[in-house]
Amino acid sequence: MTSSFFPPHRTLMGPGPSDVSARVLGALSRPTIGHLDPLFVQLMDEIKGLLQYAFQTENALTLPVSAPGSAGMEACFVNLVSPGDKVIVCQNGVFGGRMQENVERCGATAIMVQDEWGHPVSLDKVAQAFADHPDASLLAFVHAETSTGVRSDAEALCALAREHNALSIVDAVTSLGGIELKVDEWGADAVYSGTQKCLSCVPGISPVTFSPAAVERIQGREHKVQSWFLDMKLVMGYWGGSSKRAYHHTAPVNDLYALHESLVMLQEEGLEAAFARHLHNHRALVAGLEAMGLSMAVAEAYRLPQLNAVNIPEGVDDAGVRTTLLNDFNLEIGAGLGALAGKTWRIGLMGFASNERNVLACLTALEAVLAAQGVDLNRGAALAAAGEVFSGR
């Protein structure tokens, strides 16, 4: 007979999911009510307001899609891209490639702007793409590229889109709650994220927000949205804000309790304080890694504080290190993806997992595992260097 599943307590310092706080896990266990219950409708309104705070927007069409970040991505593309459109897609990692796939599945043409993995999106290349394709109606890019640990200049990219009368689609899966993201001020038109990264909620929900210009395009579509479930015209009837909600789907009630709690925690801390915490812990981690003798894969100016790409030393057994960390230390870090597979580790400091204890535990465990593999390290230097950052010296 199959027995109940009881997972071990892991420290999640990979590319996601991140550690979930006891408060959020406790919210999951609250009594389930109906998804059209007046009290749940009230909760929906609160979630919408909290998401508007997190996104820094007043967009009326701001909601959590009842599926993970990949569905949020698809929701943005299928609602804004029509057959025959031209979409400029920026790729400097794995997730730009997924954007291209979405564009092509919508029957549109993807104009690819390629940049080396580990580098930000080139503004000059995007400007040239618009010059070469003045009929492009959308610009799509990743703000925080999870596969490489790189931040691109979302504000400048959105400005380029507006300058060329195009809408922007922004992947903020890893940026929301971890670094500055100002949807209204930057003029972003469609932004999607995920709950399992810097919001430190359980996986399975994708916050999205659409500008008035994006809503206007959705309302004026000549072709049906190819996805019934993700058609915002239909979803608006459920998340539209009126007291009477039209049934669309059964919302994941308890997961939304958890999202509400994680957003309340973000509001309590304050966005600026959350950004500062991520940056402070990032600086301590980097100081420790470099003192140990390791190097970072991304130039300092473009690094994500919440997702740290570290070069794997020559001759080190990548999978062996990660397996030992998991089995012996209950610590998860991420492997490199795509072109960076086997070349980098991705160490997450996202949301609830971004704290001093995790930084010091990670440095201690990584040093022990690498030393066991015979790597020449500056033993003991990592904790001292991180400690200096934490003490403010």
Key traits:
Aspartate Aminotransferase, domain 2, three-stranded antiparallel sheet, alpha/beta, Aspartate Aminotransferase, domain 1, globular, single chain, 2 domains, 393 residues, 14 helices
Task: Outline the structure in words.
It is a single chain. This protein is of the alpha/beta class. The protein has two domains: 21-268, 3-Layer(aba) Sandwich (Aspartate Aminotransferase, domain 2), CATH 3.40.640; 271-391, Aspartate Aminotransferase, domain 1. It has helices spanning 22-28, 38-55, 69-80, 94-105, 123-132, 154-163, 183-186, 212-219, 232-239, 253-269, 271-292, 318-329, 356-372, 381-391, and strands at 11-12, 61-65, 86-91, 109-114, 138-142, 144-145, 150-151, 167-171, 190-192, 206-210, 307-311, 331-332, 334-335, 344-348. The chain has a seven-stranded mixed β-sheet, with helices on both faces. The chain has a three-stranded antiparallel β-sheet with strand order 11-14-13, covered by helices on one side. The longest helix is centred in the C-terminal third of the chain and has 22 residues, at 271-292. The model has no long low-confidence stretch (mean pLDDT 96).
